[in-house]
Here is the input.
Amino acid sequence: MYKQPKIVVFLGPPGAGKGTQAARLAAALELPSISTGEILRRECQSETERGRRLRTLLQAGKLVDNSQINEIMETRLAKKDCRDGCILDGFPRTVEQAVYLDRMLGKLNMPQPIVFNFVVSAAELIERLERRRQCPTCGRTYRVNEQAEGPMFCQNDHSLLILRADDQPSAIRVRMESYEENSAELVRYYSGANCHRIAAGQAPAKVTMELFNALGLGHLNRQKAASGGQWSVVTC
Ligand code: AP5
Here is the structure.
């Protein structure tokens, strides 16, 4: 049976929970979740001129050029696994990228995106980023609790969890400023029936249910909603 493709876009500041919710929605919709941040972090590992340049940008919390991001996304969206749609976590981040996305979707005969704008207070964002740890091997994200001390290990593959280079306070500041600079114009660009504001300061399961309801997926059970989540609390 023909399935209408679904393109879902998550807008939101650093630490808003886009990655956490993208994993859950991807599991429920059986669509790929595409994180430009993850793609770039992988590219940063290469010891090429491009890899080194990206590493410097990301560590400082600065945005990568629109042209480079658009090119990466053009290749990624043309892949077979996006035939039924995808969840875009972190793209577009500027109006220039949004215009480019519209053009790409038109060329691929895909519908316009359904956009979710994650809204969370700055104080909550900073706390989340300070408490986030990531597995460098599988990419799984954790939130450590206040009492956690000493080395922490991934529950999937036992790698030592790390603090992302751009979760240092100076980089968090730059990322937040850059979000502030671009977000108002981007949200305006997407204002309309297909743009939903999400109160993302709530508990993860509540945010998931808001998303599901907006997408008409309220019939899916909560277990399915949480199954793709990267929500883990680590204590040591
Ligand atoms: P990217 O990796 O996309 O970073 P980001 O947008 O800053 O978002 P984060 O990954 O920090 O946060 P998130 O919203 O996914 O939150 P998460 O679910 O992890 O991009 C990194 C860099 O790449 C950018 O700075 C830029 O340099 C570059 N880049 C990427 N895309 C680009 C583009 N399009 N153009 C140009 N440059 C680009 O949650 C955060 C923490 O909170 C976790 O520990 C999680 O467990 C916890 N948490 C999640 N939900 C909740 C909740 N409801 N309550 C409490 N805690 C929660």
